[in-house]
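Sequence decides. Our protein:
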Amino acid sequence: MPHNQKIVVITGPTASGKTQLALDLALELGGEIVNSDSVQVYRGLDIGSAKPTKEEQNLVKHHLLSYVEPSEIYSAGRFRKDCLSAVSKLLENDRLPILVGGSGLYISALFSSFLDNGWLVYDVNNFISKVKALKPKADFEFWAHKLLEIVDPIANKKLPLNDLFRRERALSLSLSFGAPFSTLKNSLSTNGEKLGGLVIVLERDREDLYNRIDNRVKHMINGGIIDEVQSLAKIYGGNAPCLKAIGYSQVLDYLTEEKQGLTSGIEDLIKIIQRDTRRFAKRQLTWWRNQPTKLAWLDLLTLLGFVEMIKESPPLTNSTGKEVVVDNQEDNKDADCGVSFASVKVVEGALEGRYHEVKLFLTHLIEYFRAGKLSNYCDSLDYANSETLSSYRKNNKSDLVYICRVRCIE
């Protein structure tokens, strides 16, 4: 991978609108989409994963979509290798790589330098949660202790026996990354491939997000997910790793109960999938609230920060000394880098969550990021993160990774 290359990531909870936003930005900026969803990577898992339609795939070229067989175990480490290869080719052809998906572990892995040895338990957190639910607390603690002793003896020895939270986290990460957590934690904040990243987390009001999830589940049922699961289970068996994913595992349980005459009907299945998907979305949001600090990414806070940056800053001037008028889209250019920055009106509209303004703002932000002007712009305005920027540059040899959260409404 060439040094100092920049990629854009669109992520967020399930059903937040990532696919549409990524398509719009790719068409506007000359980008191609690289899938970073741990379920959409599988062939044949189309309905339950809400995979982009054929029409959407024809609009913009997609990579790592329907990429592996359902019988395979696909790890975060393997994703990193495959993704870096795809990204490198896109950058060589002057195409903007836009990663899209809600798999936080995969995206975090991309900016880390760990090695994968091919051993991964699929959906580790779900696996551990099920074990915890089946076992009494004392039995689970003993089980977790013995398993951690096998996968990471160093962490097992260092972590207090009564600190179940940290022990469970070490176990989860060790299994997920396919390497002992004790050897990973120092590399998780490094960026071995010199990738610069702008990670855009798309968020929605909880009621809106839950309504979108509920409607998506109904659409999946009407669209044929039951037939899809039946077909996959017939070919690959009910223990196929991919069938542990949200939606698929619930349908598989439903089909098993139906054979035994125990099922209570489609309506109950819909409610169960909706409930479990909402819980999954909550975990995704928690991940992105916590990860930036752990990974030493630079959090751009909220769009409100950009409103204040523009309002309170001295007038921008180009290389000839001419003032740049930020409220005029035609003149809103920084001649030093040949890109425009969003006007106050655009940013305020984005702050309110209006989709058109969100898309415009992100287009401008990505332009600034690609031109290498974003960190300089933050510094010049004495932005709240400027001290963090200086500290980050001093202590890290890798490129900057920014994270920006945007809220969207219909």
